[in-house]
Amino acid sequence: MLTENVSVKEVAEKLGATPAQVLVAWGVYRGYSVIPKSVQKNGLTDWLVLVGRIVSGFGRVVLSKEDYEKVAAIGVGNFERFNIPIRFKPKWDIALFGEELEKSATYQVKIDS
């Protein structure tokens, strides 16, 4: 999970933020429309996106270019897909991407051409 990545944790500690906040700030830095998700009862009420800045109960999380590049470097030479449904809880028993991890899935996506 990306929130457990050493680089993300280091940037979070440096900024006094959570790893999730760092990842959302990384997406905003890239210009993405980011919709934070939380499984905790009051988690979403802590988030507010304002003009490219993430504001939460912990304060602003703004990545410097150096911090952004540190997080962005996670995928360089180490591609890993994190949105594989077979990893979800509860598990979705379907293979969407043809990844090695999905070979045990009962259902396969079939596209007829």
Write a structural description.
- This protein has 113 residues and is α+β, with helices and mostly antiparallel strands.
- Helix content is 26%, strand content 12%.
- The protein has three helices and five strands.
- Strands 1-2-3 form a three-stranded antiparallel β-sheet, with helices on one face. A two-stranded parallel sheet has the order 4-5.
- Strand 2 and strand 3 form a beta hairpin.
- Helix 1 (6-15) packs across helix 2 (19-29).
- The termini are far apart.
Keywords:
113 residues, 3 helices
Set down the secondary structure blueprint.
Blueprint: H1 6-15, H2 19-29, E1 48-50, E2 53-56, E3 59-61, H3 65-72, E4 94-95, E5 107-108
Parallel strand pairs: 4-5
Antiparallel strand pairs: 1-2, 2-3
Helix pairs in contact: 1-2
Report the structural category.
alpha+beta
Overall mean pLDDT score? Answer: 81
Helical percent range?
A: 25-40%
Rounded radius of gyration (Å) = 17 Å
Number of helices: 3
Strand order of the largest sheet: 1-2-3
Helix-strand topology string: HHEEEHEE
Choose one word for the global shape: elongated
Could you describe the largest sheet, including whether it forms a barrel? 3 strands, antiparallel
Terminal Cα span: 35 Å
**Strand elements, count:** 5
Short synopsis of the structure:
The longest helix is centred in the N-terminal third of the chain and has 11 residues, at 19-29.
